[in-house]
Every structure is written in structure tokens, then in C-alpha cells.
Amino acid sequence: MTSARIRILIILGIVVAAFNLRPGVTGLSPLLDAMGEEIRLSATFLAIIGMLPPLLYGLSGFITPRLYARFSGLGLTLAAMVMVTIGLGVRAVIDSPWIFLALSVLALLGMGIGNVVLPPLVKSYFPDKVALMSTVHVGLLQFGTFIPPLVAVPLASDFGWRGSLLVWAGFAALGVLAWIVIRIVRPAPAAEVAAEVVGGSELSRLLRSPRAWALMTMTGLTSFNNFILFTWLPSLLTRSGFDAAFGGAMLALVTAIPLVLGFVLPTLAQKMTSAYLIVVGFCISLAVGYLGLWLVPTAAPVLWTVLLGIGISTFPLALTLITLRARDAKGAAALSGFVQGGGYLLAATGPLIFAFLIQSFDSMWPAFAVVLASVVVKFFVSHAACRPGAI
């Protein structure tokens, strides 16, 4: 096989893998009400299913680099696609909520491994096209985030909620086939790049850095709200009288906005001395969106959704700040692991707390009080997180 065909094959593999890292999360939320009509879903189930994605993404950030050091990136990516395919495919056909959760763990762990493995693969096989291929990688990941909720309910209308979930297992199976071929071909990388193991003196230094903690907290609270909205936005809208298809469309919209802004924010942040004013604007947008969704949800649901989408767009900005504020390549790897690993673990508490408060009180004010409080905390810690200079 010629080098040009090998590069095309690797590009195809990265595209398919990146797309499959989110549909199992955002493609489920609009279907929870329909699923609950057939399978009894307890408050505990709803809390756990929302908590699992950030929890497992965070854990994967710490364990995958150690697996990468022992196994090849090609093999790990294939394993990740197999885990996603089996987890998503089998959970769609079972009737036990607890087995559904166990299979979700398998699928989400595969997605978390994919999150960590793809960037070093891009650097290994496209060292001269890192920026371009990183854009492809992130773009397909975001595309796989907002398309599933948009089509989940229409697919369920034609094939049932199980059929709707199986569609994403089918896409993951395409990923398995692509990476089996790549694994057989075993293309030689243009440059050997490993996933950095986060630890040692660099991690100890970050643990003593208030600015590193501030950046991790800012990132974690952004994801805290991301995963609450991923899990609960469709249900909150249906509780207000909208149909499930509208709830799915609004979830697609709230995930699409960070994708669009993600193309602008890195350049903007690089030109600004401090990105704090951007974060302030995002915090205000998020707070107003939450207040509208809580107090007058039927008045302007599209506007509230747009404001929420703008508000959670701090995440691509935070990823840019990791690169801008790191001292060197080793520092960037350690800071990325610390910020994303710790941030995802913090984010895992969001859906759990929100679900508990929604289910435990007749009023929704305690749940919205928590998310609004998280916005206030993010407002204050972001000043240190955005301050210029190396961390």
C-alpha cells in the first residue's frame, strides 16, 4: 500500500473514531422518557447515567497513558472501538437498568480511552499537519456530539428507542472495521509520540499551584454544567410542555454552539492578554439562560438554549489556555492531565447532585440554585485561571 493510501486510511480511522466518542452520551438523553415507559428508571439510575461520562473520562485521563506505554496506539484505538460497539449495542437490547449501566460503563470507558489516544496518534502520523488534523479530530468529535440528539427522537419514532440507540452502535462497528484494517496494515508512524504519563515532580508542582487549581476548577465547573445539560435539558423542556423531538433539537443546539465558537476562541485567546472578559461574558450568558429555563421556560426556549450554549463554551477556551499557559511540552502534558482529569472528576458530581435535587423536591429551585452557584464560583476562579504567564 502506498504512503498516500496509508495516510488516507489513517485519516479515515481518526475521523470514524472521533465521531464515535460522544453519540452514546448525547444520543441517549432525549430517549430517557420513552425508555422509562418500557423500563422502570429510578432516580438513582438517572443520577448515575448522567454522572458516568465525566467520571469515566476523568479516570481514563489517568490510566490510558500507562496503557499507551505498554501497548501500541493502534491496538488501544481498536480496543476502544470494540468496547464502544459492544457496550452501546448490547445495552440497547436488554431490559435491566443495572445491566444497562454496566454496559454503559464499558462503552464510556472506551470513549474515554479514545479521548486520550487520538491526539498522540495525530502527532505520530501527521507531525507536519498537527493543527489541521487536530481541527479534523475536534470537529468530528463535536459533530458526533450534536447530531445524535437532533435525530434521536425521529429515529425512535420509526424504529423505537432501542433502534435509535442501535444506530450509534452501528457507527461504532464501522470504527472497529476501519481500525482492524489499520491494525493489519500496521503503518509506521512518521514520528514516535507517546501519551505522556501524568505524575512525578511536574504533578507535585501543579498541586502546589493556585493557578493550576483555578484552571482545573474553571474547566471542571464548565463540564459540570455541560453534563447536567447533556442529561437533563430534554427532560426539563418536556416537563415544561414541549415534545421530546423539540427537547432533542434543543440539546443539539446547545452542543453545536461550542463547536462554532471553538473555531474562533483559540485565536482570540492567543491575541488577548487575558481571556477573563470572555469568561465573564460566558458566565453571564449561562446564568441568564438558567434563569430563563427555570422561571419562564416557555417564553423563549430557543433563546435560553442559545444562552446556555454560549455559557458552556468555556471548554474549548480552557483547552487553549492549557497550551498557552504551559511552560513547555512536558508541562503541557502534565497540565492537560491535571486540568482535564481533575476537571472531569469534578464534573461527575454535577448530574448526580442535580438529579438528586430534582427528584427530592417538589420545586426545582434547589437544583437551579446549585447550578447558579457553580456559575458564581466559576466567575471568581477564572480571573486567576486566565491571568497571563506560565503556570
TrEMBL record:
Span of domain Major facilitator superfamily (MFS) profile: 6-386
Keyword hit for Transmembrane helix: yes
Main location: membrane
Membrane topology (UniProt): Multi-pass membrane protein
GO molecular function: transmembrane transporter activity
Transmembrane segments: 39-59, 71-92, 98-118, 130-153, 165-182, 212-233, 245-268, 275-296, 302-322, 334-358, 364-381
Pfam families linked: MFS_1 (PF07690)
Keywords: Membrane, Transmembrane, Transmembrane helix
Location within or outside the cell: Cell membrane
SUPFAM superfamilies: MFS general substrate transporter
Gene Ontology, cellular component aspect: plasma membrane
Name under which the protein is recorded: Major facilitator superfamily MFS_1
Organism: Brevibacterium linens
